[in-house]
Write a structure and sequence with these properties.
Radius of gyration of chain A: 23 Å
Shape of chain B: globular
Oligomer: heterodimer
Distance between the termini of chain B: 67 Å
Largest sheet of chain B: none
Number of strands of chain B: 0
Helix content of chain A: 55-70%
Order of helices and strands of chain B: HHHHHHHHHHHH
Strand content of chain A: under 5%
Structural class of chain B: mainly alpha
Largest sheet of chain A: none
Radius of gyration of chain B: 20 Å
């Protein structure tokens, strides 16, 4: 928490150095996000994909497993959803349910190789999950420009459009029931970790995997299942993003670094699912404000820089949290202890 | 006739892989250096970007006329970034994974920001091909195999040889490996863990920066956003494939590079995909380098599980673990 605040202050200083007034930008950002219905709904709309990837990453972080490939799982979920959506006929609700199931399975499948390798061969999951992101991006680009390409769309190259969208959330203009999914998953995950044996075992593995083995936990199976669930949640996120009105098709720019943002949110929240919800909306508001600020000459690359600073702040904050300031006597008496021969 | 054609195509793919993998060889050697003393630097993508963008700035804006000096400036910038990383993870003992990812993000953001107005600008100050002499200029495969920039020879021959010599033939190298395997024991034996870790992390970052500088001063040769395009992650993977051995790094990097040059060769020769009629082969081929790299990491781990010890070497025992005297 201290780290995050320090990181934001530092980001402000960097903005100041590049000749921009951080307070005015902040005021404009806050005004853009909270100053009206469009801002609040726009933020919530952007929060959905970030929350879904963040929930998956937060779940794996409880076990000290780093899933950096949630961008790829998210894309593959959307890929499977498009494949089902443009080929399957039938009533809308039926197609949407099959799309959600396919996306969940695709997300889990996309992390299956890293998960099996980590669980049974002890292969570092950081690099394997990340490498698959590049493969997913190429596959999605291929589908958009190649085998599922919409011949009618000439300007932006994308796949054909899925004719179905999720029902809208009552009382809103842009939002669908998709917003309820990450909230429900957060509640379920919080319950799992508060009151179930599985959740407890995962926390034990995260704390000390050797102790977990001695306590009779099937560590390999838990790692495998948790990683698959992580991928499944991110994959479902891809379907939710795809089924929003106006999206409905897959193009090469479909994921605006959602997996990355999700990772930052999960790291910020430090494994707390309530924290993920708060952090997800916070980062989404940054995104939304970023859209507004971009028109004022602030580049997206600076947001990357700010992410980097936030992560460093979190990492240093973790270290600082291990120490405690202790007030001692103003002048501690110097005591000379004779050296003890060892 | 057909056999000769296949042979020739295969040879030219491998020959073209040599310049294509040079970045990965340099960056992976840098990773290996840091990892042998126990520091996992996930910031490779950022370091390659920083090395590349400062080399571009040096030769286009600062009027630097020599590619070596341009590379030196890129290397220096990457080394400074590496020093910041090293201070955070060695002195403050922050999580290597988090700070490494921060370095990747910060490096990509910084280099893209600095390179904004330089997209696609052709670079005039370039490394020149060396002619090793001996009348080998046949204009064919042999020439493609042997004639390269000086940096290529450095990356493939000098850097791995130096690493092998220092790591496995000197007392200093033994101390380095001890710091990576058991820092408490090394510390007790009088080796400075902090100095070794900071020093070799910075040196490793400098090598990755040299890879980035090589990209813009010879390989591409122009600046484009996200210049590393996953090469940093491939470099990290190659070190695992290589079992932390310097010359096996070269083999792993060439494996990746052949997939890259296969893509180029296929496009030049108009090869078609045997399935998905009418679809462009290049999409499929551009996935291959990453798939092959992923498989390459799994092979040694799988071989080790099956009892084939020669294939795999385990990671330095203290890799990624911060060392603190108080907690040993």
């Amino acid at each position: 928490m201290v780290g995050a605040v320090a990181a934001l202050v530092l980001s402000g200083l960097i903005l100041l150095l590049t000749g921009r007034n951080p307070f005015r930008l902040l005021a404009e950002a806050i005004d853009a996000v909270l100053g009206g219905r469009a801002g609040i709904e726009g933020t919530a709309l952007r929060a959905i994909p970030i929350l879904m990837t963040a929930l998956g990453v937060a779940l794996s972080l409880r076990m000290k497993v780093w899933n950096i490939g949630s961008d790829g799982q998210f894309l593959m979920g959307a890929f499977a959803a498009v494949g089902v959506g443009i080929h399957l006929g039938g009533p809308g609700w039926f197609v949407l349910i099959v799309m959600a199931l396919a996306a969940t399975a695709a997300g889990a499948l996309w992390i299956a190789v890293p998960a099996l390798a980590r669980a049974f061969w002890d292969v570092n999951e950081i690099i394997t999950t990340l490498l698959l992101n590049f493969v997913a991006v190429q596959l999605v680009t291929w589908s958009a420009l190649g085998f599922w390409r919409d011949e009618a769309a000439a300007v932006i190259q994308s796949t054909e459009k899925v004719p179905h969208v999720l029902p809208s959330l009552p009382g809103t203009e842009q939002l669908t029931i998709a917003l309820l999914v990450p909230l429900a998953i957060a509640v379920v995950l919080a319950w799992v970790f508060r009151s179930s044996k599985a959740g407890f075992e995962i926390d034990v593995i995260g704390g000390n995997p050797r102790a977990a083995v001695f306590a009779g936990v099937n560590v390999r199976r838990r790692i495998l299942v948790v990683m698959l669930v992580t991928g499944a949640i991110a994959g479902l996120g891809g379907m939710l993003q795809l089924s929003a009105p106006g999206a409905q098709a897959l193009s090469s720019g479909f994921s605006a670094q959602f997996g990355l943002s999700g990772f930052i949110v999960a790291a910020l929240a430090g494994g707390s699912f309530r924290g993920v919800i708060a952090g997800g909306f916070f980062i989404a508001s940054m995104f939304f404000a970023g859209l507004v600020l971009q028109t004022k000459g602030l580049s997206v690359f600076i947001i990357f820089g700010i992410y980097g600073i936030i992560l460093t702040g979190i990492a240093l904050g973790e270290v600082a949290a291990r120490y405690r300031l202790v007030r001692t006597a103003p002048h501690p008496p110097a005591v000379l202890t004779p050296e003890v021969p060892t | 006739m057909i056999l000769a054609l296949i042979d020739n195509a295969l040879l030219s793919v491998i020959a073209a892989a040599i310049p294509a993998s040079t970045v990965v060889v340099l960056a992976a050697s840098g990773c290996l250096l840091g990892e042998r003393v126990g520091v996992l630097n996930l910031g490779q993508e950022g370091l390659i970007g920083i090395g590349a963008v400062y080399a571009v700035i040096a030769v286009t804006s600062w009027g630097v006329g020599s590619p070596w000096l341009g590379m030196a400036i890129g290397v220096l910038a990457a080394a400074i970034a590496g020093l910041l990383f090293a201070i955070a993870v060695v002195v403050f003992r922050a999580s290597q994974v988090l700070v490494g990812l921060a370095l990747t993000l910060g490096g990509i953001g910084l280099s893209n920001q600095l390179g904004t107005n330089r997209n696609g600008t052709p670079i005039e100050v370039l490394f020149r091909e060396v002619n090793p002499g001996g009348g080998l200029e046949d204009g064919g495969v042999l020439e493609a195999f042997l004639f390269h920039d000086p940096v290529v020879y450095l990356a493939y021959l000098v850097v791995p040889a130096l690493l092998v010599f220092v790591l496995f033939r000197t007392r200093h190298g033994m101390n380095m490996r001890a710091v990576g395997e058991n820092p408490a024991a090394a510390d007790a034996a009088g080796v400075s863990v902090v100095r070794a870790r900071i020093g070799y992390t910075v040196l490793g970052s400098a090598l990755s920066g040299a890879g980035g500088a090589y990209m813009v001063l010879s390989f591409t040769p122009t600046w484009s956003p996200d210049i590393a395009r996953g090469r940093g992650w491939v470099a990290l993977a190659v070190v695992i494939f290589a079992g932390w051995r310097p010359f096996r790094v070269v083999i792993g990097a060439l494996l990746y590079g052949s997939m890259i040059s296969l893509d180029a060769t296929a496009q030049a020769r108009g090869w078609k995909l045997p399935f998905l009629e009418g679809s462009d082969l290049s999409f499929f081929l551009s996935m291959l380098p990453f798939v092959v790299t992923l498989v390459a990491i799994l092979v040694p781990a799988g071989a080790a599980k099956l009892g084939l010890r020669a294939m795999g070497t385990t990671a330095p025992a203290a890799l990624g673990v911060p060392y603190s005297r108080e907690e040993r």
